[in-house]
Fold this sequence. Notes:
Layout: H1 3-6, H2 8-17, H3 19-33, E1 39-42, H4 48-55, E2 62-64, H5 69-75, E3 79-81, E4 94-100, H6 109-118, E5 120-131, H7 136-147, H8 163-168, H9 174-183, E6 186-194, E7 210-211, E8 218-225
Parallel strand pairs: 1-2, 1-4, 2-3, 4-5
Antiparallel strand pairs: 5-8, 6-7, 6-8
Amino acid sequence: MSSFDxxxxxxxxxxxxxxxxxxxELLLVEEMLRGxxxxxxxxxxxxxxxxxxxxxxxxxxxxxxxxxxGRIAEARGLNVRKGYAEELPVxxxxxxxxxxxxxxxLKDPLRALLEAKRVLRENGHLILCWVTxxxxxxxxYRLASILGWEKLEGVSPQFPYPLxxxxxxKWQTVDEVRSLLRNAGFEEIGIMQTLTxxxxxxNSEMERPSPGYDRGDYLCIKARNIL
Length: 227
């Protein structure tokens, strides 16, 4: 049983406590999804982002989620199929696949990207968002998984990400994600960033996304299905 089964409530609670971090990430995902047509959200978790996106005019109905969090997403009105990113229980085609904060927890990221490709129409888009491994958050999370948050008092956020989720994750770098995308037959067509402050201060105010990847800790790549 994963932490997403055992600690589902803690996941949403963390975002509630870190509202400006949530909104900064949401604005980035929203920007990348504008005009993207019919979207499948892979690894929707509790459906928090999908619900907030709907309030902002971006409607995502269909999701895949392996954990018990899917029940929370269903209660929020989403159509959730239980399954893993590496073996999607989906046959129809979508304009866009969203993988938001998912790649950290995949057992086989390449296989998951190939599955996303399978359910995308020709020239459809994959929107992949993650905490980059070379950023402040990624480095801090690696330390926390070894030392625990109590040993990082003074440099960690006021409300740090639950350690159960930190320990299960792998924090991929930009180069690693780009390599996976190329190997799966995707062509990168855009990348944007947010959370450019140190993690201790990133919840102080909401941040709008900007192009690039050299300053932000949370990134989204848009890639085209080309093969």
